[in-house]
Design a protein that fits this description.
alpha/beta; two-stranded parallel sheet; 40% helix; binds pyridoxal-5'-phosphate
Length: 248
Amino acid sequence: MTDYPAARTADDFRTNLAAVRARIDAAAEGAGRDPGEVRLLPVSKTVESDRLRNAVAAGCDWFGENKVQEVKRKHAELEDTGVKWAVIGHLQTNKAKDVAAIADEFQALDSLRVAEALDRRLQMLGRGIDVYVQVNTSGEESKFGLHPDDLAGFLTELPAFSSLRVRGLMTLAALSSDAERVRRCFRLLRDLRDRARDRDPDLVGPGELSMGMSGDYEVAIAEGSTCVRVGQAIFGARATPDSHYWPG
Ligand SMILES: *Cc1c(COP(=O)(O)O)cnc(C)c1O
């Protein structure tokens, strides 16, 4: 396993961020891509606000969070910093109100019920947010997201929700040490994006691909990722098992 050094001070964060960014840039160049096309979204789940303040001082202006309760608390604690929040975990309709109020981006849209609830709350607040549609590319039951076969129909319904600005697609690859299996998940997401675009260029907005995490972001970039969601390689290893975030 890769070992992920913990970061506490702003200097620690500068070091880790620069190291991850250098690997992102190298992966993009290796794939013949412009590194400027790949956004780094730091995933701050389980990391407390005092440390996040140091990450902001080191230049982070966005954080990704998986759970609504946690992002709600941190949003209040860090409001003075102006940092923006991306919700990247499955949402229940009864939490749509909170996400509408505090998130600038929602990356895990996977049902029309959630689209409807979120859009209604956003309309009430007079604001809009960027959304990514989550697709289950691994076939693992523990992963949220639409079945690939349901994506095209789903995308055609989204223009009805005018406060949701569709940016593209998001996925979690199989948690596997088999690099080819992981790569197939990313390739599938890209193919789905390309096919949707061929059908109608407006269906997936600018067609962003949010894919890749600490353990697999270089493969994701080789397959076309435009947003990597990286937690442990920036903040240090997480004690909480991932099953807490992706319940089976
Ligand atoms: C936790 C999480 C990540 C980041 O995982 P790391 O291993 O910390 O890089 C990315 N995406 C989602 C949806 C997550 O929940």
